[in-house]
Amino acid sequence: MGVSIPPKEADRLKNIVDENGGSSDEFDSEGEASEGSEVSEVATEEDGGSSGDEDASTSDGSGLVDDEDENEGSEEGADANGSSSDDEKASASVDDGLESGEGSGDSDSERSEVAEESDSSEDEVAPRNTIGDVPLEWYKDEQHIGYDIKGKKITKKERQDKLDSFLASVDDSKNWRKIYDDYNDEDVELTKAEAKMISRLLNGKAPHADFDPYAPYVDWFKWDDAIHPLSNAPEPKRRFIPSKWEAKKVVKYVRAIRKGLIKFEKPKEEPRFYMLWGDDSGAADKTNHLSYIPAPKPKLPGHEESYNPSLEYIPTQEEINSYQLMYEEDRPKFIPKRFTSMRSIPAYEDAVKDSFERCLDLYLCPRVRKKRINIDPESLKPKLPSRKDLKPYPSTCYMEYIGHKGPVVSISTEFSGEWIASGSTDGTVRIWEVESGRCRKVWEFDEAVQYVAWNPMPEFPILAISVGQDAYLLNTGLGNEETQRKVGELLHVEAAKVSDDSS
Amino acid sequence: MDVDMDERQIQARFVTKLNPPFKAPPSAITIPATVTRLGLSTIVNSLLKAGDPEWETQPFDFLIDGELVRMSLDRFLLAKGISAEKTLEIEYIKAVVPRKEEEPSLHDDWVSAVDGSCSRFILTGCYDGFGRVWKGAGVCSHILEGHTDVITSVSIINPLGDVTLATASKDQTLRLWKMDSEEGVDDVPAKIRPFKILRGHSASVGSVAAQASGSMICSGSWDCRVNLWQTDVSSAEGDSVSIKKRKTKNGTEEPQLEGAPVSTLVGHTQQVSSLVWPELDTIYSASWDHTIRRWDAETGKDVSSIICGRPFNCLSVGGEGSTLVAAGGSTPILRIWDPRKPGTSAPVYQFSSHTSWISACQWHSKSWFHLLSASYDGKVMLWDLRTAWPVSVIESHEDKVLCADWWKEDCVISGGRDSKLRISSGVPVL
């Protein structure tokens, strides 16, 4: 809530205030501290500095002054704050208050004894409230906000309601300098000097006006007759080698990491919703960093690269000649050679080239994961048509043509669909009526009939048969006489008498 | 009235459109809810017996709200969402079940076609190339000889009056047979003589159908065409060249007229397996190219077509107002379309009790609701539109049933691979 004022100044200010005593100008009779006026008077003196120190007798740290009694005693009324040096001085106080300073009378005198010109924080005036770092929240339901040095409770002041405080603030010309210190439950009024200091600090300048940041540097130390260096110690080796301390620190960190004490990332929050039907591999594979693709392993030298390989590895002269006949790209790149002694081993010509290429492989060659083709092998199979597409297909046997004795090997239907000719291994060819299943004609042969076929021209009902080694053309005898006559002419034979086996 | 907690009771009243002997008293009675058709039938029978002591028990079928009852009454009501609180009005009809199975008429080979449109006789076509006329079960009166190959389809043209028979065969011809109208007594057979051969198809003829007036027939064949022919004896149109003289069974020689098609309906891409000529100028044809086409007989144009995913084997037009088209094919499902319905090619009804190809289907000529179907699984099923289960199943054939028809309005005739023609009589459709 406030600006931190250096302890020395705060004390000084306090003392100044105390010294001048309190005179109430515009203040309420109740308890306005008269420090305001004192402060304004003091302001001119503050540059002087220490004049007020001695007079800091009755000053009390906190500007608690609600006490009407104390108001008379201006010195006392103008109780300087017992607030700590870090805190602001609360100048004005709230009316109607309980006296927050019960033991203020006693404590006043004690607190007003401040150290002079001491920069040490030990010598600061301690804050009125001795609760230390106990959070004030714990006292929020209580009537007091802490205890003073004597052990007495510091009761809370009754605060003005907002309206009244607003009105008071409007009327009060010094309101802009007043800050409420809730630790001590006081209002601190800054002196003009303090206010100026604060503004200088806010602007980033040095708090004291008398400080000149651009003053030339007065080098008190004389270097004129310095002939020896301050230190002639040789530069320590540790400046040139990796730092031991850092190594130790690194080891410590590594151990901590290994133990898991140091965590780098926030622990991943379990997602509240997860994909039931999602592909599990999707999230796991996608890492932030590039996936590591290792460089190809260099081929380790085998027997062929040996300086003295077995004889069978070495190509003969004919083979070497035959390499010349091959295309360039087919030739073997390395021809094993044999050296009987170490002296005669020549230098490896490709050493630099090999290492260069290896370096290229390692860092200069972009590596990409080859996408393997994911073909479902089932998709390569040809798709069979569904059963519905194949309809109508035969499903029930309705007609049977019974008569053959042996397996029927060949069937042929006549053009109009009225007859079926069938040949079987029992050596018979039969002609059947399709619609009734009746066998109209039978021909018998010695050997098994292999194939029967109707004449593609429907005008001539001739059947071609292949029996054994022979092929026959049969006049089936169907059709009317005219057809028969024509067929007879065609075949140049008389109509053969065939047995009419109507079974 | 004791109300058992387990058994609910329903108030019901029986009504019928049948004639008086069958009329039950119209008062409402209480019946248990778990009763099935059989139970209902016994109740009605007992009611009728109460009225008429000489009553013979007859099976009845029951309709509620136009739907046949095929399960227990409470389940039916639950399925239909009919409240059991009010008095139910149950209509009963005679159960369409054949009472009697006649003797089988044996053929020499598979019976591939039957026609029962004339009530005096049955015409069958057989795989031995002969057509046969039967007067009754096992009584074959005529054999029609002439075809050189399997007969695939037969048709009776103009059943009233001058009867003409048409047979279609795999020898790519159709033959017309005239039946002399001197009926006389049953034991004096009328003469049947072939009088025309119709050539014009380039492949086996699969089906034949006659116009209602009897003057024209149409035939469909494996060359994907439908040909229309004149059937008059004295037809000056078309080439009437007498080419062959053949001896019929009766020993008479008749000049054979050859006929050429009057017009050809082109449009199908596969065999025309079945034809119907219901009205004067409308021809329906069903084919293995998955379509049923309707043709205008005058112009020969394809008017409309119903496309279904299966090749069709059989076709019949009938039902209410003779407009419903029933067709069966190489699926076990018998489908019925209504061509009057705009913009749909979905079948109105589907009957799927068969287990193999449906080879024949035929509407009853008088009833709105009844039709039959024959299938390669050896069964002939009678259907009523009002229920999804067959009204009755005739399992008289051991092998595939190739053809079926109604005869005399209360018989079902069918022929199959077992070479037998079977007659189931006493079917009280109306």
Automatic annotation (TrEMBL), chain A:
Keyword Cell membrane attached: no
The entry's keywords: Nucleus, Repeat, Ribosome biogenesis, rRNA processing, WD repeat
GO molecular function: ribonucleoprotein complex binding
Pfam families assigned to the protein according to its UniProt record, in alphabetical order: BOP1NT, WD40
Coiled coil: none
Biased composition (Acidic residues): 25-35, 43-57, 65-78, 115-124
WD repeats, residue ranges: 401-442
Biased composition, class Basic and acidic residues, residue ranges: 8-17
Compartments in which it is found: Nucleus, Nucleolus
Highest taxon above the source species: Eukaryota
BOP1 N-terminal domain segment(s): 139-394
One BP term from GO: maturation of LSU-rRNA from tricistronic rRNA transcript (SSU-rRNA, 5.8S rRNA, LSU-rRNA)
Gene Ontology, cellular component aspect: PeBoW complex; preribosome, large subunit precursor
Major place of residence: nucleus
Annotated stretches, region: Disordered: 1-137
Protein name: BOP1 N-terminal domain-containing protein
UniProtKB/TrEMBL annotation, chain B:
SMART domains referenced in this protein's UniProt entry, alphabetically: WD40
UniProt superkingdom: Eukaryota
Molecular function terms from GO: ribonucleoprotein complex binding
Stretches assigned to the NLE domain: 10-77
GO cellular component, one term: preribosome, large subunit precursor
Compartments (UniProt record): Nucleus, Nucleolus; Nucleus, Nucleoplasm
Any one biological process term the GO annotation gives: maturation of LSU-rRNA from tricistronic rRNA transcript (SSU-rRNA, 5.8S rRNA, LSU-rRNA)
WD repeats: 144-187, 198-230, 265-305, 351-393
Alphabetical UniProt keywords: Nucleus, Repeat, Ribosome biogenesis, rRNA processing, WD repeat
SUPFAM superfamilies from the UniProt entry: WD40 repeat-like
HAMAP family: WDR12
PANTHER family: RIBOSOME BIOGENESIS PROTEIN WDR12, WD40 REPEAT PROTEIN 12, 37
Function statement: Required for maturation of ribosomal RNAs and formation of the large ribosomal subunit.
UniProt similarity note: Belongs to the WD repeat WDR12/YTM1 family.
Record-given protein name: Ribosome biogenesis protein WDR12 homolog
Organism for this UniProt entry: Linum tenue
